[in-house]
Design a protein that fits this description.
It comes from Bos mutus. With 242 residues, this protein is mainly α. Helix content is 52%, strand content 5%.
């Protein structure tokens, strides 16, 4: 991280924020490149919906989709969801994705025109009773499943408070589409800076406003769960950038 900055042996907030943003963009580029090689089967420099569908789900004749798998309905729903997202990402409507359009398909949270599809998919994932809202118990169920007789952990109580105090903006006890959007895609927020501030606050033991290598290693578990290390993946790379 510091090698990407001034090389003074300390990681400042600005350096940490810059590194997280760099890591995030590198992850996106790498994932799109890998997907491109898989999906562009005819090597024409574009990814058609048919190519993506067949590479992901296998080739089926119309009307015979998933006739040979046990949970056919689940796969049909996944296919329909992917096609819906592809159609939104395919801005010129030619059923052929450019690299930019494929990036929007794979990482819709990065593109303003994909906002509605991200919200719709989040609602579909969490709204178990299909009433068009996310109730607090549905929100918690996505995070935690209690064992019989188990007392609810403190962190779950904290999540309930987060739901009540910060997610449920109109205080009606549930989240509508607008509130889900505010939660999963908060407006005008510098996410790398938010994460950098959090890591600095939790790891800066001497409170000097910067991180030493010892402080980072002393809180390694938090960094493993962070975009700063690409969720731990960068720790397997052969470099020393701390």
């Amino acid at each position: 991280m510091d090698r990407a900055g001034d090389g003074d042996g300390w990681v400042s907030l600005a350096e940490l924020r810059s590194w997280i943003a760099h890591t995030q963009q590198r992850h996106i580029r790498d994932s799109v490149s890998a997907a491109w090689n898989t999906y562009d089967t005819d090597r024409d420099g574009r990814v058609g919906w048919e190519e993506l569908r067949n590479a992901t789900y296998g080739h089926y004749e119309p009307g015979e989709e998933f006739h040979d798998v046990e949970d056919a309905e689940t796969y049909k729903k996944m296919l329909a969801r992917d096609e819906r997202r592809f159609r939104v990402a395919d801005q010129d409507g030619d059923s052929m994705a450019t690299r930019e359009e494929l990036t929007a398909f794979l990482h819709p949270e990065e593109f303003p025109h994909m906002r509605d599809i991200v919200i719709a998919e989040t609602l579909e994932d969490l709204d178990r009773n299909k009433d068009g809202y996310v109730q607090v118990e549905e929100y918690i169920a996505d995070l935690y499943t209690a064992e019989p007789g188990e007392e609810e952990p403190a962190w779950v109580q904290t999540e309930r408070e987060q739901f009540r105090d910060f997610r449920d903006l109109n205080k009606d006890g549930k989240l509508d589409g607008s509130e889900v959007g505010h939660w999963v895609l908060p407006p005008a927020q510098d996410q790398p800076l938010v994460e950098a501030n959090h890591l600095l606050h939790e790891s800066d033991t001497d409170k000097d406003g910067r991180l030493s290598k010892a402080e980072i290693l002393g809180n390694w578990n938090m960094f493993v769960g962070s975009q700063a290390t690409n969720y731990g993946e960068d720790l397997t790379r052969h470099h020393d950038e701390l």
